[in-house]
Amino acid sequence: MATIKVPANTSPVQDAEALHKACKGWGTDEKAIISILGHRYSYQRKQIRQAYEELYQEDLIRRLESELSGDFEKAVYRWILEPADRDAVLANVAIKNAKKDHHVIVEIACIHSPEELLAVRRAYHNRYKRSLEEDVAVHTTGDLRKLLVALVSTFRYGGDEINARLANSEADILHDVIKDKKVNHEEVIRILSTRSKAQLLATFNHYRDDHGSSITKHLLGEPSDDFHKALRTAVRCIIDPKKYYEKVLRNAIKKIGTDEDELTRVIVTRAEKDLKDIEEVYLKRNSVPLDQAVAKDTSGDYKNFLLTLLGKED
Amino acid sequence: MATIKVPANTSPVQDAEALHKACKGWGTDEKAIISILGHRYSYQRKQIRQAYEELYQEDLIRRLESELSGDFEKAVYRWILEPADRDAVLANVAIKNAKKDHHVIVEIACIHSPEELLAVRRAYHNRYKRSLEEDVAVHTTGDLRKLLVALVSTFRYGGDEINARLANSEADILHDVIKDKKVNHEEVIRILSTRSKAQLLATFNHYRDDHGSSITKHLLGEPSDDFHKALRTAVRCIIDPKKYYEKVLRNAIKKIGTDEDELTRVIVTRAEKDLKDIEEVYLKRNSVPLDQAVAKDTSGDYKNFLLTLLGKED
């Protein structure tokens, strides 16, 4: 379930006018910006952008970029984009980031539905005039490249049918590779990047039943190079996206100084989808509500914006 | 340009009734079947199937399969399917074929536009409840698997923009690999499977300009294992699909006994697209019109059907 609260009757034209007013003259009315954009669904934000363009012959995004700054600007920019376009931007930033945010690529590839991933790849074409897999391939090497390119290129079957015999035999293949610490990861990459999610869940269940421990636990025993990190992330994203996101949030908040990029990404990308469920997982795991943890670690307009997306008003 | 001839006014219901009559009772009126289906576009054949189903509560395809036989049946079956669905069937047969028809997979991956390839992958999901890349990956190994999986999984950028500097440097990379006969084909696979077709054509042009000979010519000096065969096919399909198809037809006809599967595939898949252009290339290369060559090598209903698709009546 989503966390954002959206009023029943809204008008794109009135919203555009109010945003124009908030940006006009000296100073910016950040509160007004938050109170509008933080309470609109993706399709409504798109309508607002269109209305704004028609009314003022100006791109609302550009205007906001010039008015806002810092983490708040970044969060608003991420939020106002359509989901697939936003993910294209997130992927592109992650690809070029020296910090090696491979987990962002893996998230997009493994948490999205097959059709959603396709929409991101299409948005990537439109925005960068290149393909997502093309840029991933250029910026990575070795096994990591093989894994990431395969994950972003796949168009998994989306149905629920599973083949139990196959799940059994592929659980054994995964176990053999992990147990024997084989250098050749072809089979692991093949299984993770081509099988349907339903099939993979069945395979992971067999793994746990037949080999005494979960695949994620066994993977923790592996070296922590970039390839194995991405592999673990992929498995966790496929098994339980909400639990995965809870951990991203926990680490972002726990970190000295807070990791705003991570915090923003999870809240912005999930606020319209399942952030309510992620909040529940967070509360269970940390015994403190997510909004309280966020409020403690952030400040100013950025804090107000995130709390609005979390459905909590000041 | 297409070769089939389609009359101005047709009625799906009348066509369905005529087909029903052609299949009724003892014996089948193959001529009537050819004269209807051989003169209808893909969307019209779909309407006929729907009309037939409504009128007679029977699947037209099943009925035709039970009425017809041999190469003629196969050709009609291929022809009546929608293009993306037909390619899904062709790919599936090729994947499971012991003859190793990898070139069929490469054709579908490299000749289709990015959106057409996507439509085939979608049709593959619908028909087989698995993904195309999943089945390709299971039935191949080693470098061949890497190449084929990458080719069927790619969603290339479809625009015309090219990066000349990149074309230059990647032409050098390809040349180094081919010249030094390197075992590691990662870079060749990366370039061929992720770059846009416009970019690849620019790269191949640089290759020829800078290294004295075309990449296809240099690839002929490589070993003729399955991987290198598929690699050559991919390059040829990207450079000039019509020339590629001409050669497939030439080899199919030249072969002792004729390769009906190849002949059927090219004629059925291209009759509505560019078979007219392929005919021209064929005539230039062989000094004999394609329809004459086909007529000489085939017989009976199969021959009549192919000639109808070629726009030539008896």
CATH topology of the largest domain in chain A: Annexin V, domain 1
Largest interface, counted with CB-CB under 8 A?
A: A-B, 30 and 30 residues
How many structural domains are formed by the residues of chain A? Answer: 4
Number of helices of chain A: 20
Q: Count of DSSP E strands of chain A?
A: 0
The ordered H/E elements of chain A are HHHHHHHHHHHHHHHHHHHH
Q: Which whole number gives the mean pLDDT of chain A?
A: 94
Structural class of chain A: mainly alpha
Measured on Cα atoms, how large is the radius of gyration of chain A? 21 Å
Second-tier CATH architecture of the largest domain in chain A:
Orthogonal Bundle
Task: Specify the biggest β-sheet of chain A.
Answer: none
**What does the overall shape of chain A look like?**
elongated
The CATH homologous superfamily of the largest domain in chain A is named Annexin
CATH class of the largest domain in chain A: Mainly Alpha
Low-confidence stretches of chain A: none
**C-alpha end-to-end distance of chain A:** 21 Å
Oligomerization state of this entry? Answer: homodimer
Percentage of residues in DSSP E strands of chain A = under 5%
Considering the chains and any ligands shown, give keywords for the structure.
homodimer, about 325 residues, mainly alpha, Annexin V, domain 1, 20 helices, calcium-dependent phospholipid binding (chains A, B), phosphatidylserine binding (chains A, B), calcium/phospholipid-binding (chains A, B), calcium ion binding (chains A, B)
